[in-house]
Specification:
This protein is an alpha+beta fold. It folds into two domains: 68 residues, Alpha-Beta Plaits (2-Layer Sandwich); 84 residues, 2-Layer Sandwich (Alpha-Beta Plaits). Helix content is 37%, strand content 30%. It has four helices and nine strands; from the N terminus they run E-H-E-E-H-E-E-E-H-E-E-H-E.
Length: 161
């Protein structure tokens, strides 16, 4: 039976390149000259540090712009609350890897509600879809790409006939 997996992952190489470009852009920006501001990547967490809240928002704009240039979907960013310690403001941007259980259940429910002739099952941090025909699976992929209810970027892999 044909099947494929629905996953949600961020390409870490492209993420690292986008952050490196953001650091380079930060060093050349006139509005950050003489200001203690920093963009740092730790695993899948980007740490932003600046002297005031407005500058942290500017750092987010720089990072989002470079992520868009590297084709990293901004829906995978989970922005944490801004915190203050001493004279610096800090903000963490966490990049989500994998599909969490509530979102996986939502995807399975969407597929079943549309009465498609496939079966969807949750397999850890991905969703496996199986069906009798390849065309049914391609219909599911087209449906999920056009759906706005899912707030994660989805990729489709392991398409087997």
């Amino acid at each position: 039976m044909p099947s494929f997996d629905i996953i949600s992952e961020v390409n870490t190489v492209e993420l690292r390149n986008a952050i490196d470009n953001s650091v380079r852009e930060l060093s050349t920006r006139f509005d950050f000259r003489g200001v203690e501001a920093e963009i740092k990547l730790d695993q899948e967490i980007v740490k932003l540090t600046a002297e005031n809240d407005f500058q942290v928002d500017q750092l987010i704009t720089i990072v989002r712009g470079n992520l868009a240039k590297r084709n990293v979907d901004p829906r995978s960013i989970d922005s944490q609350a801004t915190s203050r310690s001493g004279k610096h403001f800090h903000k963490d941007l966490v990049f989500k890897q994998g599909i969490d259980t509530p979102t996986a259940k939502k995807i399975v429910k969407l597929i079943k509600d549309n009465k498609m002739k496939v079966q969807a099952s949750i397999q850890g941090d991905k969703v496996r879809v199986t069906g009798k025909k390849r065309d049914d699976l391609q219909t599911v992929i087209a449906f999920l790409r056009g759906n706005e209810d899912i707030e994660l970027p989805l990729q489709f892999e392991n398409f087997r006939d």
